[in-house]
Amino acid sequence: MGSAMNATLDPSQFLLRRLHSLLGLLPIGAFLTFHLWENSQSRFGAEHYNTRVVATLQEMNYLVFVELFVIALPLLFHAAYGLAITGQMRAELSRYPYARNRFYWLQRISGVGILVFLLLHVGTTRLQGLWQPAVRDDLYGHMQGMLSDPLVFGFYALGLLLSVFHLANGLSTMAIVWGLTTSARAQRLFGYVCTALGLVLGAIGIHGLLGFLP
Ligand code: HEM
Questions:
Q1: How many structural domains comprise the chain?
Q2: pLDDT tens-place string over residues 91-110
Q3: Which of 5, 8, 13, 21 is the pocket-test mutation for ligand 1 (most atoms within 8 Å of CB)?
């Protein structure tokens, strides 16, 4: 799928496509993994989470630089180019009703879902903390307040599972596009590895969400 598609791209589009693919894994996928692990520390309570986890990160030198250049800008590029790819999407599902085509669709639909989730999530945490110091100083309490509403909890669980699916499925297609898994057997086996990774990350993420509940 990937190589046939790439054959029709001009060199600059090809490079942008490869950049989009690479950024999905590094740094965005790596950050997502770190972020889920970081938030799984919620289960050790407010004191531990606010002072040992959040405060330690907030005291990091060059934090804004890292947030901007290692997280925000790569994510903005990946999301903008991802939306452009999604806009060009052909209705292939109806023509080829196979599992891989469904995943091709799901990758795009999950991308759009993640975008909505991230805008609300970043807006109500990191950005809100900029003008409300109380939020920044007690992120545990802030998250607990929000997640105590079952609707918000459901929204967070969905955003989290979409992100984890998108990363795990993206990893398996990436390996094909970059020529790492060429045989059907290698693709199937690596698919199992990606599924396992998705399940572990999903479990860590849900565990973290539950850790905020009273
Ligand atoms: C948690 C944030 C995200 C992570 C960790 C992530 C990760 C990835 C990875 C690893 C891939 C595989 C690259 C490949 O197929 O070569 C991918 C593909 C893709 N991503 Fe994301 N992504 C994220 C957010 C988004 C957002 C917000 C959008 C925008 C709508 C998006 C749209 C896409 C699309 C359309 C593809 C498929 C590209 C293709 O098949 O050529 N992603 N993503």
A1: 1
A2: 555 555 577 788 989 999 99
A3: 21
Cβ of 33 below 6 Å from ligand 1 = no
What is the CATH classification number for the domain harbouring 183?
1.20.1300.10
pLDDT averaged over the chain? Answer: 93
Range of the domain at 42: 2-211
Q: Is the pLDDT of residue 2 over 60?
A: no
Query: How far, in Å, from the CA of 50 to the mean position of ligand 1?
Result: 31
Place of tokens 């596009």: 177
pLDDT in tens, 152-169: 999 999 999 999 999 999
